[in-house]
Amino acid sequence: MFSRLIKRFFGGDVAPQAADATAAFVDLNRSAPLRGPAPPAANPRPSEAPATFLCREAVLGRDQRIAGYQFMLREAGHQRVQQRSRRVAHLCAEVLVADLVRADVGRLLGPRLAFIEVPDSFLDHPSLQTLPARQTVLLPRPHADVGAPDLTGVFDQCRRLQGHGFRIALPDPLVVTDYAGFLAHANLLWMEGSGLEVAHDQQLRQLLQTLKATPPALLVRGLDTLDHFRYCFNGGVRYFQGPFVTSRESWEAGVLSPNVTRITALIARLRGDAPTEEITALIKQDAALSMRLLRYINSAAVALPEKVSSIERALLLVGRDKLYRWLILLAYGADEVEGRAAAALETALVRARMLELLGGDRPPRERESLFLVGLLSLADVILQVPLDKALAPLGLDPDIDAVLRGGDGPWRGLLDLAVACERSDGESLEAVAARCGIAPEAASACHLDALNWATELQS
């Protein structure tokens, strides 16, 4: 992963323009917004579906790494698909499936899962067969409108889909009691976890007790805080979803590891305009750092015409600005990133690429600043130290530093937009996009493009 990021920092093929996106996401950009250009006639879009944009939210496993994403449609204009007729709900489900197929979601996710919520009467729709079955978890939900299918038919369709490799996640049987009869055959169950300690504590206990005698794993959605997550984790929950993924802790006792400390000390001297001779001597004192610098400078990503064998020559060719960016990146990879920190790193990479794409018409130096804003926006979560300890040694430009510390600045709105794209709250995304003067459909497509980039970077 880091060798590919080095290519990004050393001036490789990273121009943040739509033409550089993969073919799948170029297609998505053209077709995902229903208000956009018409798709090819061979694969028409439902004409009665309301204007929508895609959202996604990370789902973590028990190792606290990203196990998959839930993808969903949100309607523009603060409306809800669930409040529309069953027919419109079907049309929106068809659009969601079509968009994910166009995005080549199987390649996009690799070994991860796509969680997709659909009306229970949609389970027999032929479009579902176009999804990568073994990477797809279907969450059927009842719909209040007329035309509800017979429960026996729903369960028969669930079994049929499971036979094709799909996984079925049913809603909490303590809430949707009609589905309790299929409990033992479901692959997963899911429940809402917002307000857990007040409204759902007893409900979660009851559900976990029920699951002791049955095979399904449990997904809890809407976990707001780390306390919520830890409560569910200790209760044996398998999958976790909600804003807690990027939530901050105090980490007051946290300190940078020795490896990171050495790198940030070098960054501090570099930003303090220390002489090149001093920077060279500091690098030479760290044999591992010297080897990594020479390996990267001689890599195909940098594509130098000559082999470099000395630190002095490497610094001359790299330059202080690129060395600075390289060291910031290296600080993230100085230690093995595990658990929730790994999920935060992936999120930071998506933010970085999205901000770079959103700044595609800006000067190169500003695009690089936008990339750093996204990359460092979760520095404290990744390094698990207080934010000041994570940022202070980096000698960041004032505008970057201000945004990362929660202040205003020229890139505040774009960072807020990237964060809004990580949540399933369509209203928030639409509001932030409006403040930035960007259509929510365009922001959503750009975000998925960034997700594709970050996924390929880590493959």
Return the average pLDDT rounded to an integer.
81
Tally the helices.
20
* CATH homologous superfamily identity of the domain at 41-246: EAL domain
What does the overall shape look like?
Answer: elongated
Strand content: 5-15%
**Strand arrangement across the biggest beta sheet:** 1-2-3-4-5-6-7-8
The gyration radius over C-alpha positions equals 24 Å
Biggest sheet character: 8 strands, mixed, barrel
CATH topology of the domain at 41-246: TIM Barrel
Ends apart, CA distance between termini: 7 Å
Any chance you could write out the topology, listing elements then pairs?
Layout: H1 2-9, H2 23-31, E1 52-60, E2 66-75, H3 86-102, H4 105-109, E3 113-119, E4 136-141, H5 151-163, E5 167-171, E6 188-192, H6 196-211, E7 217-221, H7 226-234, E8 239-241, H8 258-271, H9 276-285, H10 287-297, H11 311-318, H12 320-332, H13 339-358, H14 364-376, H15 379-383, H16 387-391, H17 398-404, H18 412-421, H19 426-436, H20 440-458
Parallel strand pairs: 2-3, 3-4, 4-5, 5-6, 6-7, 7-8
Antiparallel strand pairs: 1-2, 1-8
Helix pairs in contact: 1-12, 2-20, 8-12, 13-14, 13-18, 13-20, 14-17, 18-19
Summarize the structure.
The chain has 459 residues and is of the alpha/beta class.
